[in-house]
Amino acid sequence: MVTNATIETLLNRRSIRAFKDEAIDDDVIDALETVAQHAASSQYLNDWSAIRVTDPELKRTLAGISGQAYVGTAPLLYVFVADEHRNAAIAARKDMDVHTDAFTLTSSYRFSQAQNDAVLALHAMETAAYSLGLGCVILGSLLNDVDKLIEALRLPELTYPVLGLAIGKPDQEPALKPRMPRSMQFFENTYPTDDAEVLEPLADFDETVHRYYDLRNTERPVDAFSDQIAAVAVDQGVASKNVGEHAAKQGFKLR
């Protein structure tokens, strides 16, 4: 396999949840935010925003939402947001009636594209941070209570939180998490029709994942990968995180 510094940075990414108590320099912040702005954007709508959280009380609130104490002490903390509010304001300045059926920035298509753009920007920032020797963890846990998060960040209509990103100087060195065999995830031309063939390497992957978690935490054994998937498939807590309900409150029409 060919390699270079960028590939090595990506291959060695791991989630860092313990940071040194050291601030991130302003010039580094400038670089990270500029890189995020250079990520791809659907139809050049620039339909995402990111909120840098610096207020200690607000950080504690987000830590409470996520259930992760380290969120409250992360040296650099962002929440990336799908944002059609800004574009609606621009359209209104052009004398467009943003409350008619002709206005499509509220549609499910635009909502999904704005989410995609926010994720692309976050990933660009994360990769840049790793390349500078920093560590990161992506915070899907901030979506544990979307209504509370929207209230805490004062998110206006036509915005929606996507993911958080905590960044800092690493104070831990976790092992690299094993990755699924490529044959289970990369296909040629069409999706395979034979599930048994796709899942043929699963037993070995289950063993690899189980061994990884056993070595990581010998006092708290973790199920094999397939058992984790089965448990998540019937997770009763997912119903309370219905995106459609929360997005509708923000003015999006997911239909």
TrEMBL record:
Keywords from the named record: Flavoprotein, FMN, NADP, Oxidoreductase
Protein name: Nitroreductase family protein
Keyword Oxidoreductase: yes
Family: Belongs to the flavin oxidoreductase frp family.
Xref: InterPro entries: Flavin_OxRdtase_Frp (IPR016446), Nitroreductase (IPR029479), Nitroreductase-like (IPR000415)
Superkingdom assignment: Bacteria
Domain (Nitroreductase) ranges: 11-169
A GO molecular-function descriptor: oxidoreductase activity
